[in-house]
Amino acid sequence: MAKGRPSKKQLILDTAQGLFALHGYQGTAIDLVVREAGVSKPTVYNNFPSKQALLQSLISRQIECIAVRQHSLVNSNDSVSDKLYTLFQQIVEHPFELALYKIYYGESYKLDAATLDLFQQIEQITEKNCRIILSTLSQNEIKIAAIIAIYKNATLINTLSAKNCASKDELNASIQVLGIISDFS
User: Fold this and answer.
1) CATH number, domain containing residue 17
2) Which range of residues forms the domain containing residue 44?
3) How large is the C-alpha radius of gyration of the chain?
4) Going by fewer Cβ within 10 Å, which terminus of the chain is more open, N or C?
């Protein structure tokens, strides 16, 4: 292998990531990965015994990226509302991460328990970081859960439903109108 060239395994992962982002789980056949990556089918199956194993590798790789990115955001000097808004905007603006949520919410019945556990890890990391961000404003678990639900619904769920995301100001107003946190900005 020449220096600087990705390994075939890396090439397969990168190609599959783009295809899953574009076509979803069901729409991404191994034959399509083979064709787009320019490798043989045995090469794919030598590295990944199944399409789910390929997806699991991609999810594991994404979990690491999410954890690093969100950790950096949690530790930033931004306001609480800026941190939360940015956290969810990063999800909807990252094509593969958004595709993972589409697969999780729309195609999970096709996936095995190990794959679903990886999706749950993404959800847990995001929720944990939301809770860390919000802990500076409130220790009330109900309020924290309500704020997370508002942000998730107004950004991620709206995007998955082909609706417009709420603006940061709209989200802040919703939280204040509901009286969850009086000075949320």
Assistant:
1) 1.10.357.10
2) 8-177
3) 19
4) N
